Amino acid sequence: MLLETKGLHASYGATRVLHGIDFALEEGSITTLLGANGAGKTTTLRALCGMVKTSGEVRFAGKRVDGRATEDIVRLGVAHVPDGRGTFAQLSTEENLRLGAYTRKDKAAVQEDLERMYGYFPRLKERRRQQAGTLSGGEQQMLAVSRALMLRPKLLLLDEPSFGLAPLVVQELFGILRTVNEKERVSMLVVEQNAAMALDLADRAYLIETGRVVLSGQADEIKRDDAVRRSYLGY
Amino acid sequence: MTFDALMLQVIAGLATGGIYASLALALVMIYQATHLVNFAQGEMAMFCTYIAWALINAGMPYWGAFVLTVGIAFVFGVLIERLIIRPVENAPVLAVVVVFIGLLVILNSLAGWIFTYTIKSFPSPFGVQPLFGVRFMSPHQLGSIGVTVVVLALLYAFFRFTPLGLAMRAAAQNPESSRLVGIRVGWMLALGWGLAAAVGSIAGMMVAPIVYLDPNMMGGILLYAFAAALLGGIDSPGGAVVGGLVVGVLENVLGAFVIGNELKLVVALVLIIGVLVVRPSGFFGRVHVSRV
Predict the structure, then answer these.
(1) Which of A16, B57, B100, B220 has the CB geometry, 3.0–4.6 Å to B39, for a possible disulfide?
(2) C-alpha–C-alpha distance, residues B188 and B208, integer Å
(3) Which of B169, B179, B185 sits opposite A91 (nearest CB)?
């Protein structure tokens, strides 16, 4: 297992948001967390990278990472496309991408990856010198995904990657994510409002309700589950 | 007022303006990272200048002492951030401001206690012979303009072209995203303090031959630097430099021909109030607009 949590709790101040989440993510797989607004999906991702106060166990590649600083977890190869995109608004698009590779020392490969990102998202290449804060919402979302990929992560955490994107661009983005997963064996944990798309992309799925895992299984089984279909897929 | 006399004042203004610009830049660097104005910046520079003075008096050649002092200032800045500012990182603004003022008073008294309050002369490395036959400028004016230009160019290159400079800019504007790409934000802030202290120490060493060395020497200079930083826009490094030069020239020209030397400091105060009232974001500063 690449990532494993046991009894993961998290709280903002006195408010407890996660009440003991257990899940596991197999190396090379795509796993999705489903759930309504406020169920604790974003908090789960934040807890994995040490951005909120947690208790419980988180293991990444066999090592305990709970309680470690965010930047140390990132250096182990965990990239995060955060809620709200996390753009460095006053820096240029290219500087944003270079920051994604900040911890890497292999300069030539970084340059290659930069070109690869521009290949995935030609819009970003057109806007490489532009201040990133002036990009459209969709472009900033592409930038956030590319910036995370620049780390060459082992695990990519994606918080609402389709947020604010036009349907066609979403298709394209999910296609790119699948390619990256298959070709580079990057494991992914995806949080999505768009449950249908997420279940199509993912191998496994967990359903979270008010800070607890209530259902888990293979993505195609979950898709057939009556309750999930009614509440999250809408048919 | 002859043209020559005016030129003389303009050039003198550019020379001191460069020094204000350096100190204003130090203020802006810390403001960008912490959103606070470091009131102790001037006293930190003064204290470092005393260290340079002590090194030179102990027989060290000027440029050796200069380089060593800049190094010491850097370490000193890093230590201040780690030991004094870090613990109050999340404290209310006023608490931090009080810490800055405490630092100001402590450094001022410490300098007086160690080096006495007697005014000392501080050597200029540029001699007394006119450099390159320039007759408008004293060698020290020309030299300090040169040093300022070199410092500003180095800083610009560092922030613009090195990965570490980029990471420092990133950490100052978006700490959370910076952590998510693996930047050690706490250390970037400490480095920023180190750099600001180093730049400040250079300003101190360049201004000391003009105003003489004493524990209160930076009081006035810091006011000009505040005026410069505000005029340029407190969050704009380029603005701080332009502001420094403008304040330097205004101060000299107005002091010589309009209001007299005794009222020079008023120029800085009027600028500070004027900018805050008329255009709080300065010439080059960002206007912060947020939706509610």
Answers:
(1) B100
(2) 30
(3) B169
Cβ(A185)–Cβ(A28) under 8 Å? Answer: yes
- pLDDT tens-digit readout, B3-19: 888 888 888 889 889 99
Q: How confident is the model at residue B100 (pLDDT cuts 50, 70, 90)?
A: very high
CB A69 to CB B182 under 8 A? no
Judged by CB atoms closer than 8 Å, whether chains meet at A102 and B180 is answered as no
Average pLDDT over residues A39-52: 89
**In this complex, which of B170, B174, B184 lies closest to A71 when CB atoms are compared?**
B184
- CB-based burial label for A14 (10 Å; 0-12, 13-18, 19+): exposed
User: Torsion over CA of A138, A141, A147 and A153, rounded to 10 degrees?
Assistant: -130
A28, exposed or middle or buried, with CB in 10 Å at 0-12, 13-18, 19+? middle
Q: Supply the pTM of this predicted model.
A: 0.87
- Our CA-based measurement puts residue A121 at a distance from the nearest CA of chain B, in whole angstroms, of 20
B91: DSSP letter: S
Distance CA B39, CA B19 (A): 17
If you measure CA to CA, which chain A residue comes closest to B174?
A: A88
Q: Chain B partners of A71 at a C-beta cutoff of 8 Å?
A: 179, 182-185
Spell out the residues 6+ positions from residue B258 whose beta carbon is closer than 8 angstroms to its own. Answer: none
Count, residues in chain B: 292
CB contact residues (below 8 A), chain B span 142-171, against chain A: 163, 166-167, 169-170
Question: What number is the ipTM of this complex?
Answer: 0.90
Question: Model confidence over A98-108: pLDDT tens digits?
Answer: 999 999 999 89
